[in-house]
Amino acid sequence: MIGESTKSKPTNTNLPQGDLDEFMKEFMQPKQDMNIDENDGLENLQVERPEEPQHIQMQSGAAKATGKLCVTVVDTVLPACLGMIAKDDGDNYKASDEERSELEEAFGEYMKLKGADVPPGVMVLILVGTIYGTKLPYAFQQRKIAAAKEELEKKEKELLERERELQLKLAQLEKKTDE
Amino acid sequence: MERTAKMVIILGANGTGKTTLLREIVTQSNQKTLIVTPDDAEWLDCQEVELTKPSDFVYTGLRRHIFNPDKDNGTLKKLEFFKKGIIIFDDCRSYINASTDIHIRQLLIRRRQREVDVFAVGHGFNEVPPVFFTFATSIILFRTTDNIVRRKNCLKDYEAVLQKQTEVNKEAEKDPHYFQIINFS
């Protein structure tokens, strides 16, 4: 038997540690008596029963897929907005894998109960909007940068032309002075 | 001498002996035990209960409830009617999630008043929802292969538990059924 053949060994961490015998010795002690009866409240089980079955609006598979889509949308749009607010990379505000899976489960459960069947066409539109919509601010920013760059290049050109004219005038003046 | 109700987490990869040990513990303790499991191939020798009538909550020995998330109608909420015994959540990651956490939290908070010991069983640290770690009184740790870092915020002494995991995994190379019991004071 595992419990008898394998004993935990003491180690040098600060955590209190025990082996199975110690654990069982404590576990076999009676629990603190709270003066309760096993039957207490069971009459309410009958009353609550009719309320408990929840009306399932959606099949589990469809609800999970819709939940996943919702999480993808949320986890793309919100980090992009937060990134814009913080002037930082939006990826830093994305949910971790575990947070994502918890969100997916929660959204899935909600969809299953409330029913929010998204037609495939709308689903594609939402996805396209999510993917490209979050790139819009970046595109506008790039456009602004490109316009500023163009303006700077124009100014640089003008300055170079003016410099050339001035150098020409200077050369003429020097020539006159020499004469 | 009396003790307070326990919240024990049992962690270990497949085949390490979690269920065997658990069976031994509940059999020896001789308490009324309810096993909540998603797998109908587990705990086959236990009579099945639907948790729909009072006799599903008042009995002696071991009973199991098969948890099917697609057909469930409030099992975790109904556990508030279970008193004076042991509840085992086998492979709990499959059916406890963010939306059911509230019922588990209530159960764990009220376990002393209801005289209920709770066991949560999983294949690794990430296979047991964080709410159990918050209330854990002990962890029985077999060989686990997952990264413990995701439970950093809910573990009572993260660094020490991490060290235990390393020790247990090392010992398990020689004995695959090796485990350590970590008690939180």
Question: What labels would you give this structure?
Answer:
heterodimer, A: 179 residues, mainly alpha, 7 helices, disordered N terminus, B: 185 residues, alpha/beta, Rossmann fold, eight-stranded mixed beta sheet, 6 helices, 20% strand
How would you explain this protein's 3D organization?
The complex is a heterodimer of chains A (179) and B (185). Chain A has 179 residues and is mostly helical. Chain A is 67% helix and 1% strand. In chain A, helix 4 (60-86) crosses helix 5 and helix 4 (60-86) runs parallel beside helix 6. Chain B has helices at 18-29, 75-78, 101-109, 111-114, 130-135, 158-172, and strands at residues 7-11, 33-37, 47-48, 62-66, 85-89, 116-122, 138-141, 180-183. Chain B has six helices and eight strands; from the N terminus they run βαβββαβααβαβαβ. Chain B has an eight-stranded mixed sheet with strand order 3-4-2-5-6-1-7-8, with helices on both faces. Chain B has one domain: Rossmann fold, CATH 3.40.50. With 185 residues, chain B is of the alpha/beta class. Chains A and B meet through helix 1, strand 1, helix 2, helix 3 and helix 5 of A and helix 1, helix 4, helix 6 and strand 8 of B. Strand 1 (17-18) of chain A pairs antiparallel with strand 8 (180-183) of chain B.
Radius of gyration of chain B: 16 Å
Tell me the name of the CATH homologous superfamily of chain B.
P-loop containing nucleotide triphosphate hydrolases
Order of helices and strands of chain A: HEHHHHHH
Q: Name the overall outline of chain B.
A: globular
Mean pLDDT of chain B: 91
Distance between the termini of chain A: 116 Å
Number of strands of chain A: 1
For the sheet with most strands of chain A, the description reads:
none
* Proportion of strand residues of chain A: under 5%
Q: Low-confidence segments of chain A, ≥5 residues, pLDDT <50?
A: 1-7, 9-16, 47-52
Mean pLDDT of chain A: 78
Strand order of the largest sheet of chain B: 3-4-2-5-6-1-7-8
